[in-house]
Structures are given as structure tokens and as C-alpha cells.
Amino acid sequence: MNQATREQAQHFLRQDERLVAACAFELDPGVPYPPESLLAPPEPPALSRRIEARIPRPLRQLVHAKAADPHHLRPSAAAETAHRLPDALDAPGSRTPRGAGMEGGWESAAGRFLVSRANAHGSAGGVLAVTDRRWFALTDVSPLWRSTPVMRQFWEVPRQAVSALRANPRGTAQKGRMDVEFTDGSWVAVLAVPASAARPFAEASAHLR
Questions:
Q1: CA–CA distance from 89 to each of 68, 112, 122, 160 (Å)?
Q2: Rounded to an integer, what distance in angstroms lies between the CA atom of residue 167 and that of residue 164?
Q3: DSSP assignment letter at 191
Q4: pLDDT digits (tens, 9 = 90+) for 88-137
Q5: Which of 86, 153, 155, 176 is an S-S bond match for 124, by CB 3.0 to 4.6 Å?
């Protein structure tokens, strides 16, 4: 396990919780992007929040009312594209030569994982960790100009909610691919970074079952 990845995961451990393994990951290119109806609006940057706090309340309410107006202009296409850069290749139900990237609806465990990740508005990469109690995932939410990562936990489930983590599953050629399978029958494909970390991570997590 990479030392930096381990340290990032350890920062989110609870009292008396033991980290079993952690692995840097990205989503498989075949994973679909959640529908917009399931996504929460992005949080305003800290600077925007400070500026808004200085605006008189009546004016602030007027701005919010306009933002809620369905006839009000949406953010520019460029801004929307920039927000979705990590998932530029994603499309609902998409398939690639690497195979499908997800099984299950958006209400499934796999679907909730992807919705939570999208709502975190983090970077393309992240950290997947398993402890003696649970699974959780982190993403870097730092602004582009900041060199030091700022990790945020966007997802967690009890350890028993994941039925298996399969490294390099049969029928796929993508190096470093891991299928995270849930007890409800759904699954989502992620890519270990580096690819060589997939098998050790899967073997470490298997010792818990």
C-alpha cells in the first residue's frame, strides 16, 4: 500500500478502527455518469461564501430567487463541461471495449456510490479504503491552484455491504480493474492506481470475509 494513500485513509479512521488496506483509484471509463436529477448543486467556493455574507440580506434573497427561477440562465456550457471533465467519457449505459462499468440502477448500492462521488465534485482520482468495520472512499476537493490535496470522504458502507472485490475480473482486459460487488447484486468497476496495486488490495480485503 502506498504510504501517501495509507496516510490519507488513516486521517478518516474512527476511534479504535483499524485500517486493513487502501488503494488509489479512478472510475473505469465504462462507468455511467448519474442523471442530473440526482445531483445536488455544487457548493459555492469559500471566497464566494465570504462575499455573499457581506451582501445585505434583501439583496441576497433577490439573488437566490433569481437562481431558483427556471427561466434564469443556466451556467455556461463551458462551466458545466469543466465540472464534468473527470467524467468526460462517461455516458449512461455506455460500454467500451473494456466491458460494462456498472450493474444496477441508481437506487442500488453501486448507483449510490456513483451519485455520492459525483456530488462530492472532486478530482478524477480518489482513495478506496477498507477497515475492520467499513468501506469508505475519498476524493480530492482542493482547487486546481493548490498543490496539496484536500481529501473529503464521500461514501461509506458497513464492511458486510461489499460481497467481493475482484481484481482483473475475467472477460476484461483493462489493467488494474477492480469490480466492487455489493450484497444487493450491483457492482461498479474502478481502476487501481497504479494497476499493480489491484491484486494486493483485493487479497487484503478478502481476508476480512
A1: 30, 20, 16, 31
A2: 10
A3: E
A4: 333 433 334 345 899 999 999 999 999 999 999 999 999 999 999 999 99
A5: 86
Amino acid at 66: K
Residues facing 152 on adjacent strands: 139
Q: Are 23 and 201 spatial neighbours (Cβ–Cβ below 8 Å)?
A: yes
Q: Are 116 and 155 in contact (CB under 8 A)?
A: yes
Q: What is the largest CA-CA distance in the chain?
A: 60
In tens, the pLDDT along 134-184 reads: 999 999 998 877 788 999 999 999 999 999 999 988 877 789 999 999 999
3-state DSSP percent of the chain in helix, strand and coil, to 5: 35, 25, 40
This prediction's pTM: 0.74
Beta bridge partners of 126: 25, 139
